[in-house]
Amino acid sequence: MAKLNPSFSKLKSEYLFSTIERKLSDVKKNFTSTRFLNFSIGDIALPLAPAIVKALCDAAEEMGTKQGLQGYPPTFGYPFLRAAIAEQEYRGLCIESDEIYISDGINSDAVNILDLLHPASQVGFLSPTYPAYLNSYLMSGRKKSLLIPCTEEQGFIPEPPKEHCDVLYLCTPNNPTGVAMTRSQLQAFVTYALEHEALLFIDSAYSCFVTSPDVPKSIYEIPGAHTCAIEWKSFSKSHGFTGLRCAYSVIPKTLKARLQGKKVAIHPLWEKRQAIKFNGVAYPIQKAAYAGLMPEGRAQTEKQVRTYLSCARQFKKGLLDLEQRCYGGVDAPYLWWKTPKEMSAWQFFDFLLEQCHLIAMPGIGFGPHGEGYVRLSTFSSEEEISLALDRLTTKVSPCILL
Ligand code: PLP
User: Fold this and answer.
1) Tens digits of pLDDT across the chain (402 residues)
2) Which of 82, 103, 278, 333 has the most CB atoms around it within 10 Å of its CB?
3) What atom in ligand 1 is closest to the CA of residue 206?
4) Of 44, 85, 175, 249, which is best to mutate to test ligand 1, by the most ligand atoms within 8 angstroms of its C-beta?
5) Is the distance from the beta carbon of residue 231 to the nearest atom of ligand 1 less than 6 Å?
């Protein structure tokens, strides 16, 4: 009989979302007319901006004409989008359009990059962080990994490890803590990478939410990063593209690593990988992403980002007023809420679900250092957050939360 990948057995048997769904449907059976407020999922809550909808429709119409026919898209992205990203996102940062590779999502890029790594690489992962990096790493059968803690004592900011790593995955602003690294904190990782000849994989999915002046919006603001870092950015959260799918990897030509002892540029390997395994992002989607970078689309989508951040501020203030230990929400649409009374993440999840009909995300789903926390997504509305705070204030006795 055919044999399957044994590494699947290293993955947790039940997926976080399915456990949440199961618990929710059990509780809903007893509260059929109750409005449940869902702060668990980091998905957009506002409709697509008008400029993006128009670009999608126009592109589809164009494709319906003989002159506008579009077949397979270019594997690395249409030149118009690559050029617009270089100009709009990387002006003054020495990134050229042919160092930008369009994809269908950071999720894909962050897991597909493993194709380029030597199987014996030692890879560092933050804990807590976006779980896809480590899960795909385990699925690929690799073993040498190191967890880099982001704890409350450190302000949830990771420190470069004492041990040697060949690659470090960093997520800043970090999902789930909502905390972003400053210039000097990122500089420490660049220095580490240069000393160890390591690569940094920087997930910047939430860079559009950065408001703190000392937090860079790109790793390439840090001296030395062009020779050690790949950066991923996405239209998912900045432009409401979670359902459309468009993102990009930035791989500077100066970025090198060892292949059979020799130092070689990484971008030709990525190009080869993509040419073999990826067929590009649809024309209307790239036209829509392009529209989102132009002044009208940018103004509309930036307003949406401000709305999500304002929700984060409102929710955080409400929780702090209730004397909760709550972090993030300044440079990202996530709040990281310390569970009261030493409750485990799942115990507090159950409590919020059963007593307040609020759905949070148990922090343990993001790594062992997420135990004792829940994440709240503020891709939400002022009205939902007011209702949530109202329930927390009126339904829950203060002695439970404190
Ligand atoms: N990276 C982080 C940190 C995320 O939180 C998410 C989605 O929630 C992703 C990547 C996925 O991004 P994309 O939609 O571009 O695949």
Assistant:
1) 999 999 998 887 667 888 999 999 999 999 999 999 999 999 999 999 999 999 999 999 999 999 999 999 999 999 999 999 999 999 999 999 999 999 999 999 999 999 999 999 999 999 999 999 999 999 999 989 999 999 999 999 999 999 999 999 999 999 999 999 999 999 999 999 999 999 999 999 999 999 999 999 999 999 999 999 999 999 999 999 999 999 999 999 999 999 999 999 999 999 999 999 999 999 999 999 999 999 999 999 999 999 999 999 999 999 999 999 999 999 999 999 999 989 999 999 999 999 999 999 999 999 999 999 999 999 999 999 999 999 999 877 666 776
2) 333
3) 3
4) 175
5) no
Residue with CA at minimum distance from ligand 1 atom 5: 175
Which phi and psi (to 5°) does residue 358 adopt?
-110, 140
Indicate whether residue 208 lines ligand 1 (CB < 6 A). Answer: no
CB 95 within 8 A of CB 116: no
Residues 6+ apart with CB under 8 A from 46: 240, 304, 307, 308
* pTM tops 0.90: yes
Give the span between the Cα atoms of 59 and 283, in whole angstroms: 7
Residue 264: CA atoms inside 13 Å, Cβ hemisphere, count?
12
Is 103's C-beta closer than 6 angstroms to any atom of ligand 1? no
Any ligand 1 atom below 6 A from CB of 209: no
Contact 105 CB / ligand 1 (< 6 Å): yes
Write the CB contacts of 52 (distance below 8 Å, at least 6 apart in sequence): 239, 240, 288, 291, 292, 297, 300, 301
Beta carbon of 229 within 6 Å of any ligand 1 atom: no
Taking the alpha carbons at both ends of the chain, their separation in whole angstroms is: 57
- Give the C-alpha separation, 41 to 70, whole Å: 35
The residue whose CA has the least distance to atom 12 of ligand 1 is: 106
What residues does 123 pair with on adjacent strands?
145, 167
